[in-house]
């Protein structure tokens, strides 16, 4: 009888109330005040005019697998009303609601028709062509007169998600003409006008910055299911915004490096050339002196702060900066973020103008209160990767230490002299570039500077470090997997034997047949991606969860099934489902896990409901999106967000959370940027580590950091080839993953769909074994993204420049678990074991398969499916 963890009552639980309260506090911390001439905080409650497509349809988070099915979403209107405001523009919002409803009905009618004609191939349209809300209706003079107030809030919303990149066009990256007309009317008609940006990624703010009458701009971001309450807290001053940007907001889209060659912009979605190299985000804007609208790390407040550097210390291991932060205001308490950057010397290797070394956030400081912070980082963090020597190198010269509150507000605090070069890590060349590619160079370019910088360099405190005493780590690589021999015994070894210490995992694996191990290395679904199971909803044990491991061998070896659930901003499960008294799910009842999916699921005629049927409920908390979490610059807050998810995983029987997503914000048009933290790898890595630590403090549950790696494009995501130089790969796109592994040791890693330099990431031995396991010390399991090995079959009739990854190739690379699974996956593994070269697509050894099976069993062994589970016991490994 399946064990069901869901609640049997629809009443809101104490856990829901508690976690929404915690999420509300976190969300308010990550909102960023971009502009304010004194209009905020709002001085008093009363009548308030509310406009914008996000006023009622407030976006809690993006679409696709990043969505979370919470009980409710508290929108901006509801949040402001709960704060005591009387919203006086309901007539305008009613008109817009009607326009949206008509557009939504037309969209899903068209989608249903396509499904009836094309079958399941039409499913991909919900990702590639998601529903887009219609333009806003005009703001009339009658709306303005009826509002009876001098204060207006305009909530501008944008949504995006899995399977489709954004466009630099009106209504997406740019404001639509209808929005400009509405905002202009509001700005001209009210004394106090606040624009709230309910967006998951960067938009063009030029019109907003140039329009007279706009008094404040607040980046609300997408704050989860309590969005409206958190927004009201910030607008009213109950919470002083302390968020800082985690990515650069350019003046115009064309200012980004590679703006015209990204994805669809040049018409080539098959090959993506990372020609900008290491110059991503502020590294580019600062080095090439391109002025942004809002720089990386920027954030304003309702009060003012003074940041004073007291001292800088450096030795061969660490650098430490001591700063004092004082709230110099008279009225509002608040928090400040201190960011420390370094400028490495230009030598044989080019260096950006500056790079983030470390950061810290103060406690809440009362007016005139001060706090001292000690901010430290390993000296080797300032090393650069030299492809010629396959090593991280600190080149000789002066390293300037800069302290400030954004990338465009730093001042030199010290100069560290290194008289000779030091190698900090010796590796091997990996991920070989598969084409000729001319990288962007900053030679001859005059970087950003500021008045007094030259003087600061002259007068900076001079420190020196002995290069000869700087330690150097040398990576050790091993090739191949030794075959595990079967122990001579007639006893069938079970997981109980392993748990009790009567046998080892090697003993158990040695008894498994090739067929049994193949079953273990392929998820439970046998129809493939979009076949018998719904996309991202293939779990047989937890309705709406993304998938399970294997249900085979449970009776004879007690190898239990673990549940994997999506949702980088919480758990994405069905809100409700029905089951009989034996715990068997009744198909056709309950809510689809992805909105709109109900037209693709369930039988044509619903079965009869048994008299003993029970309705179960799975209401989860939608926490703020990853970008908002990063904007808190508070690892303790992010760890608490992970703690929320870990608690709910335990409640609903989920073992692995398919999150956090941590790809780099390479370009603002990436459709899934909301799922990712930052353009900076240090921020991304520290956020993912904190998220993981929060989740994994709960016994037997863990995270799955993703998408490993170079998943910076959604258009043609399954068949695009990312051409990336090794230095950029290691310093920018892999560094965050490395930090997360070394700091938090997540239970799992998920590979991405794309290729890296001609090899599918799912089949990349360099990426999964040599780098993740042997260089970083990763100890968990690796899994594919859903349908990686059957992606061509999902879109019949289409031709692709690059095919699908190989299931056997996954095993050879060290990709342990192919999800969601299919008979084709199973059969490919079985026929590839011991096969000769040329007889199959990818021959593998028995040892390869045994290694994957063992890693899967090791994780299952530590999951909450067994009584007495403890927090994940992997060692922290090598530390940064």
Would you give an account of this structure?
Helix 13 (514-520) crosses helix 24. Mean pLDDT is 92; it is low at 875-880. The longest helix is centred in the first third of the chain and has 29 residues, at 90-118. This protein has a six-stranded mixed beta sheet, sandwiched between helices. The chain has a six-stranded mixed beta sheet with strand order 20-21-24-25-27-30. A five-stranded mixed beta sheet has the order 11-10-15-16-18, with helices on one face. It is of the alpha/beta class and 880 residues long. The chain has 24 helices and 30 strands. Helix content is 27%, strand content 17%.
How would you summarize what this structure contains?
By secondary structure, the protein is an alpha/beta fold. The chain contains 24 helices and 30 strands. The longest helix has 29 residues, at 90-118.
Task: Outline the fold blueprint.
Blueprint: H1 14-29, E1 32-36, E2 47-51, H2 76-82, E3 86-87, H3 90-118, H4 125-128, H5 141-147, E4 151-157, H6 177-189, E5 192-198, H7 206-210, E6 216-219, H8 227-235, E7 271-273, H9 282-287, E8 305-314, E9 318-327, E10 337-343, E11 355-361, E12 370-378, E13 384-386, E14 391-394, E15 397-406, E16 409-418, E17 422-426, H10 453-459, E18 461-465, E19 473-474, H11 495-500, H12 505-511, H13 514-520, E20 547-548, H14 554-557, E21 563-565, E22 576-579, E23 614-617, H15 626-632, H16 635-652, E24 656-657, H17 681-696, E25 702-708, E26 721-723, H18 726-733, H19 735-744, E27 748-751, E28 755-756, E29 759-760, H20 765-775, E30 781-783, H21 791-794, H22 807-813, H23 823-832, H24 846-861
Helix pairs in contact: 1-8, 1-16, 2-8, 12-24, 13-23, 13-24, 16-17, 17-19
């Amino acid at each position: 009888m399946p064990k069901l963890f869901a609640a049997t009552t629809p009443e809101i639980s104490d856990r829901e109330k508690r976690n929404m309260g915690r999420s509300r506090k976190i969300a308010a911390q990550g909102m960023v005040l971009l502009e304010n001439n004194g209009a905020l905080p709002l001085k008093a409650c009363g009548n308030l005019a509310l406009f914008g497509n996000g006023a009622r349809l407030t976006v809690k988070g993006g679409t696709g697998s990043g969505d979370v099915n919470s009980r409710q979403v508290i929108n901006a209107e509801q949040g402001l009303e709960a704060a005591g405001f009387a919203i006086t523009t309901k007539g305008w919002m009613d008109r817009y609601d009607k326009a949206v409803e008509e557009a939504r009905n037309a969209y899903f009618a068209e989608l249903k028709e396509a499904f009836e004609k094309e079958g399941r191939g039409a499913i991909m349209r919900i990702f590639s062509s998601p529903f887009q809300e219609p333009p806003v209706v005009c703001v009339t003079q009658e709306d303005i007169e009826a509002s009876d107030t001098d204060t207006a809030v305009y909530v501008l919303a944008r949504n995006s998600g899995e399977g489709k990149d954004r466009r630099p066009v009106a209504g997406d990256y740019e404001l639509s003409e209808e929005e400009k007309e509405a905002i202009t009317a509001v700005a001209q008609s009210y004394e106090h006008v606040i624009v709230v940006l309910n967006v998951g990624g960067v938009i063009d703010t030029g019109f907003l910055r140039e329009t007279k009458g706009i008094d404040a701009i607040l980046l609300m971001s997408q704050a989860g299911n309590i969005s409206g309450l958190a927004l009201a807290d910030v607008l009213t001053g109950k919470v002083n915004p302390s968020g800082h940007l985690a990515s650069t907001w350019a003046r115009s889209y064309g200012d980004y490096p590679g703006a015209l060659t990204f994805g669809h912009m040049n018409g080539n979605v098959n090959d993506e050339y990372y020609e900008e190299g290491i110059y991503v985000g502020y590294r580019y804007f600062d080095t090439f002196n391109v002025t942004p609208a809002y720089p990386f790390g920027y954030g304003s407040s309702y009060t003012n702060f003074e940041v004073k550097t007291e001292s800088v210390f450096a030795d061969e291991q660490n650098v430490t900066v001591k700063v004092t932060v004082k709230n110099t205001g008279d009225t509002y308490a608040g928090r400040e973020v201190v960011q420390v950057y370094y400028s490495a010397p230009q030598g044989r290797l080019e260096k950006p103008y500056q790079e983030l070394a470390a950061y810290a956030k103060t406690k809440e400081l009362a007016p005139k209160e001060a706090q001292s912070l000690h901010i430290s980082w390993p000296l080797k963090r300032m090393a650069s990767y030299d492809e010629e020597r396959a090593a991280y190198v600190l080149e000789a010269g002066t390293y300037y230490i800069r302290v400030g509150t954004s990338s465009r507000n730093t001042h030199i605090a010290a100069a560290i002299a290194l008289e000779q070069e030091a190698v900090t890590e010796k590796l091997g060349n990996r991920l070989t570039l598969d084409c000729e590619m001319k990288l962007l160079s900053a030679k001859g370019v005059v970087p950003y500077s500021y008045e007094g910088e030259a003087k600061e360099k002259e007068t900076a405190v001079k420190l020196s470090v002995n290069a000869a005493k700087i330690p150097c780590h040398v990576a050790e690589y091993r090739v191949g997997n030794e075959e595990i021999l079967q122990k001579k015994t007639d006893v069938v070894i079970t997981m109980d034997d392993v748990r009790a210490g009567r046998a080892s995992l090697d003993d158990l694996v040695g008894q498994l047949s090739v067929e049994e191990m193949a079953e273990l290395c392929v998820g439970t679904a046998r129809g493939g991606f979009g076949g018998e199971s719904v996309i991202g909803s293939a779990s047989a044990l937890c309705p709406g969860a993304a998938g399970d491991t294997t249900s085979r061998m449970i009776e004879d070896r007690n190898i239990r099934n673990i549940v994997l659930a999506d949702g980088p901003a919480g758990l994405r499960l069905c809100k409700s489902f029905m089951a009989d008294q034996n715990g068997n799910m009744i198909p056709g009842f309950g809510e689809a896990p992805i909105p709109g999916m109900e037209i693709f699921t369930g039988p044509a005629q619903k079965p009869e409901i048994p008299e003993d049927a029970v309705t179960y409920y799975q209401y989860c908390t939608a926490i703020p999106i990853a970008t908002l979490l990063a904007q808190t610059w508070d690892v303790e807050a992010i760890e608490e967000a992970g703690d929320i998810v870990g608690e709910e995983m335990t409640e609903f029987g989920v073992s692995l959370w398919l999150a956090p997503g941590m790809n780099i914000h390479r370009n603002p048009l990436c459709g899934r940027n909301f799922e990712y933290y930052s353009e900076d790898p240090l921020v991304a890595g520290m956020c993912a580590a904190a998220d993981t630590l929060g989740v994994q403090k709960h016994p037997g549950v863990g995270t799955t950091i993703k998408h490993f790696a170079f998943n910076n494009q959604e258009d043609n995501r399954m068949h695009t080839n990312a051409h990336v130089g090794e230095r950029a790969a290691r310093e920018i796109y892999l560094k965050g993953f490395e930090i997360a592994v070394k700091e938090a040791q997540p239970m799992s890693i998920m590979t991405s769909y794309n290729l890296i330099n001609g090899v599918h990431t799912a089949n990349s031995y360099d990426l999964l074994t040599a780098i993740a396991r042997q260089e970083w010390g990763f100890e968990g399991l690796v899994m594919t993204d859903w349908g990686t090995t059957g992606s061509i079959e999902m879109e019949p009739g289409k031709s692709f420049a690059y095919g699908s990854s190989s299931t056997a190739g996954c095993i050879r690379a060290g990709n342990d678990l192919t999800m969601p699974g299919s008979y084709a996956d199973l059969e490919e593994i079985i026929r590839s074991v011991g096969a000769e070269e040329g007889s199959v697509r990818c021959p593998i050894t028995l040892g390869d398969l045994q290694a994957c099976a063992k890693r899967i069993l090791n994780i299952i062994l530590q999951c909450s499916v067994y009584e007495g589970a403890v927090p994940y016991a992997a060692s922290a490994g090598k530390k940064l």
